[in-house]
Amino acid sequence: MDxxxxxxxxxxxxxxxxxxxxxxxxxxxxxxxLLMLRRIELREKTRISLAIPKIQDILQITxxxxxxxxxxxxxxxxxxxxxxxxxxxxxxxLMTELNRYQGKTLKKLELHSAADTQTGSIGDIEIANSDGxxxxxxxxxxxxxxxxxxxxxAKQKIRGSQVDRYYILTTHPMHExxxxxxxxxxxxxxxxxxxxxxxGVIPTIRYYLRLLSSPGDVLPYYVQxxxxxxxxxxxxxDVWNRISTGMLEVI
Length: 251
Hints:
The protein is an alpha/beta fold. It is built from ten helices and five strands, in the order ααααβαββαβαβααα. It has a five-stranded mixed beta sheet with strand order 1-2-3-4-5, with helices on both faces. The longest helix is centred in the first third of the chain and has 18 residues.
């Protein structure tokens, strides 16, 4: 601990750690793990300035979303949240332009870790009537193929509600409804009076962007969601910056 060389600001912390391991026989692996944890915590607290691309081309915007969704993240937990944030951002613009949503309210997103049974939600994204009842809902699945089982689960959620339209969207390549899925959707419509739509996230995003007078207006909202959503890590933000500035090409 009396080492007299000047090794800067890290001198005392470095010698303390070294002394704990060499003299007091503390576990080196646990010490390293703790240092890494503290470093990650510091990094996560660092506010990263996110880029907002100034583009209006629908194909370019869709491509940005695709690259961000399908990047192979080391911290994969928040990756499934990205399509939800993108669609929620699109709804923020969509609702100001379409008569269908006049007098409706886009509800705030629930925490990514919260189960629907805890929150009472019937979808990841919900649009409410003036009385608070759900008018339209969107359930987003990440890399899960469309199936009759998904439709059946959705049917249980919306039973007893007066929801007008319910979307089940997935990022999985198998997003075209097969005959079983179509049959189940028709049953939902007949029994519950709800229009159910099953499709892919990317085709839906492309379709929604076509409805907007300025598709690029979605991007500032998406960046805002990335900045504030608790499921989004430093890695997701860093990858967005590298993709949106052309430093990283995923697809």
